[in-house]
Design goal:
The chain is of the alpha/beta class. Among the domains are: 75-320, Alpha-Beta Barrel (TIM Barrel), CATH 3.20.20.10; 557-600, no CATH class. Strands 3, 12, 13, 14, 15, 16, 17, 18, 19 and 20 form a ten-stranded mixed beta sheet that branches. The chain has an eight-stranded parallel barrel with strand order 4-5-6-7-8-9-10-11, surrounded by six helices. It has a two-stranded antiparallel ribbon with strand order 1-2. Helix 3 runs parallel beside helix 4. It starts with 5 loop residues before the first helix and ends with a strand. Residues 84, 86-87, 109, 132, 233, 236-237, 272-275, 320-324 line the site of pyridoxal-5'-phosphate (PLP).
Length: 616
């Protein structure tokens, strides 16, 4: 039995019970049951499950921990937060988020014009909107419009030219100007693979000299009273608390200095995002060395201390953590299409009357392997295979011999695993260290786990069922793109152990967890695999759950349309090629066109149920 580190990464969102991984909420349905229900509607391929109750859980945790810290330190400022849209802009995520956000007055952060439009349209009344990122005049104008629509909008300046633009646009608008924030460039930088947002060489923010200049410009243009916030963001997935504390000390002192220089309405410090998520499946690797409680205590305590030292008002605290809010809400379920060694069965053997001696020996090993010699025979078979493959390259054995070699070695591996299973972990591990079984998954790693491809970020992964059985196969995972990068392999020290399933008899699914932040929008359409079918799982008070907002993966025609193909022209070309073909009887041409049309409206993922072979 194995729990796939669920106690480390799942934050009790999911539990293992009765051999199944279950949603730890209300009626506690298993993911297996949910996915079966979805597949009953004819859906095949990968499915992204959204759990809005997990969005609520994270938001509630963020607010309650900050408010607890504020109370316990008798801090005078208040806590506010916004969701950074770049982390997940998908409509079904936003649709769930907005009503959940309302009672918290949780707002939105926009980093581009399109994101700002989403914020302006959907943000709850009175909840804050912060606008970051590089801004041209139209983006600034949108910010002014947002303020006019009644949104509590803050435009954060990344450079002095943006401030010039704001001053210009303010003249045009004559009256209501949004709040102005200044992004500060800190010495402190984050750590880890996302560390480029902070530090002296950061892409963003004003240096001390520029801050002084900005103050001048604000004063001269009569906008100093609009300056309400300083902002910094030292990077995403900040795994250690120390850089956060350093950044806060720096930012807190800048806040106090600017206040003393006359920024009388400057009352907010915005810490940006960066709260880390624990992705680890292993006891000894941790991706985060602090708890939310520790984080909030440190922030509140430090800001209180600085304000006290410098004799200024304790600022309100803003955060823009996105990963922490969104990651857990989505789970990607992928069907296993094939186990690589599955095709190697005894039936496939084509032994000759006289086999090459090493092949014969492999056969004898296979026939006489037993619990006491299993490991030894296993090693011998790998040695023999090496030699036989060399003999093939040199032309001494033929393709039939080579095929027999491959089959026999795989049969020996399987038998060795079976026999050593009884003898315990250590023995089995000696096999698992040497051979990995390849599991082919119906999904695209480029589309659904782009951070694995781009950054080597690992996501917790586990099977949905059979969790009361000890898994015996050390696995590597392959996606269905035609790209050799479409593989997730596992270090021998931290293997992924999966079950040896017969896919002709049963279905087997793997789920990737914590994929709700960044993965969807960063996903790329390599081989034209698009966003997987998505379903929102919503729980009622009585515990029952409903499947909502199903959006099937795009059809082939839609994918081509998105690439700007003229799909009418494309369809006519196909049609006339069929009409002109001598290879199709005239009477059958209409039927063929009909078939083609049906296929064009399917999605691009494989439509295979291993149990029954291909679906119609
Ligand atoms: C990306 C970003 C965030 C969100 O960061 P997370 O690591 O997802 O919390 C917040 N603020 C700014 C300015 C950002 O660029």
């Amino acid at each position: 039995m194995k729990n796939y580190g669920i106690h480390i990464w799942s934050n009790d969102d999911f539990i293992i019970e009765d051999g199944l991984v279950k949603v730890n909420y209300r009626s506690k349905p298993s993911l297996y049951e949910i996915i079966k229900r979805i597949r009953e509607t004819g859906i095949r391929g990968p499915v992204l499950l959204r759990f809005p109750h997990l969005i609520r859980k994270q938001i509630a945790a963020l607010y309650s921990e900050f408010n607890r810290a504020i109370e316990s330190f008798e801090y005078k400022g208040r806590f506010h937060a916004v969701f950074p849209l770049k982390v997940n802009q998908f409509p079904n995520f936003i649709e769930s988020l907005i009503p959940i956000a309302r009672p918290f007055n949780y707002g939105l952060e926009a980093g581009s014009k399109a994101e700002l439009i989403i914020a302006m349209a959907y943000n709850n009344k009175n909840a804050p909107i912060t606008v970051n990122g590089f801004k041209d005049r139209s983006m600034i104008t949108l910010g002014f419009l947002s303020a006019r629509m009644g949104h509590d909008t803050t435009l954060t300046i990344e450079g002095l030219n943006e401030l010039e633009n704001i001053i210009e646009v303010a003249k045009e608008f004559d009256g209501l100007t949004p709040n102005i924030g200044l992004r500060i460039r800190l010495h402190t930088s984050g750590i880890g693979i996302w560390a480029k947002s902070g530090g002296i060489n950061s892409k963003f923010g004003l240096t001390s000299t520029e801050l002084l200049e900005a103050m001048e410009m604000l004063r001269k243009s009569g906008l100093l009273d609009r300056f309400t916030m300083i902002h910094f963001h030292i990077g995403s997935q900040i795994g250690e608390i120390n850089p956060v504390k350093k950044a806060l000390r720096e930012a807190g002192n800048i806040y106090a200095e600017l206040k003393k220089m006359g920024a009388k309405n400057l009352n907010n410090i915005n810490l940006g995002g960066g709260l880390a998520v624990e992705y680890s499946q292993h006891e000894h690797i941790h991706h985060r060395n602090y708890t939310l409680t520790e984080f909030t205590n440190d922030v509140v305590f430090l800001l209180k201390e600085i304000a006290h030292q410098k004799g200024v008002q304790e600022p309100d605290i803003y955060t823009e953590s996105g990963r922490f809010i969104a990651a857990s809400h989505a789970v990607l379920v992928t069907p296993v299409l094939e186990l690589f060694s599955q095709e190697y069965t005894e039936k496939g053997l084509r032994l000759k009357e006289h086999n090459p001696p090493l092949v014969q020996e492999l056969y004898d090993l296979y026939k006489s392997i037993n619990p006491s010699n299993a490991i030894e025979y296993f090693h011998d078979s790998l040695d023999h295979m090496e030699s036989l493959l060399t003999l093939f390259d040199l032309g001494y054995i033929d393709l039939q011999d080579r095929s027999n070699t491959e089959i026999l070695v795989h049969l020996i591996i399987k038998k060795a695993i079976e026999l050593t299973k009884e003898k315990g972990r250590a023995e089995l591990k000696r096999i698992q260290d040497r051979v990995q079984e390849r599991y082919l998954l119906n999904f695209s790693l480029f589309q659904s786990l782009p951070d694995f491809w781009g950054l080597g970020q690992r996501f917790p992964v586990m099977p949905l069922n059979r969790l009361d059985e000890t898994p015996t196969r050390s696995a590597s995972l392959w996606d269905i793109t035609c790209d050799s990068d479409g593989e997730i392999d596992f270090n021998v020290d931290y293997p992924l152990l999966l079950h040896d399933v017969d896919l002709a008899k049963e279905e087997y699914f793997l789920a990737f967890f914590l994929v709700g932040a960044y993965q969807e929008i960063l996903g790329m359409k390599h081989n034209l695999f698009t966003h997987p079918t998505e379903v929102t799982v919503e729980f009622a008070k009585d515990g029952s759950y409903t499947l909502k907002n199903m959006v099937e993966a795009q059809s082939i025609l839609d994918i081509l349309y998105d690439l700007d193909y003229d799909i009418n022209a494309l369809q006519s070309r196909l049609k006339s090629l069929i009409a002109e073909s001598d290879l199709i009887e005239t009477a059958k041409k209409d039927r063929i066109i009909e078939m083609l049309n049906l296929l064009l409206h399917e999605n691009n993922y494989l439509k295979i149920s291993p149990k029954r072979g291909e679906d119609g």
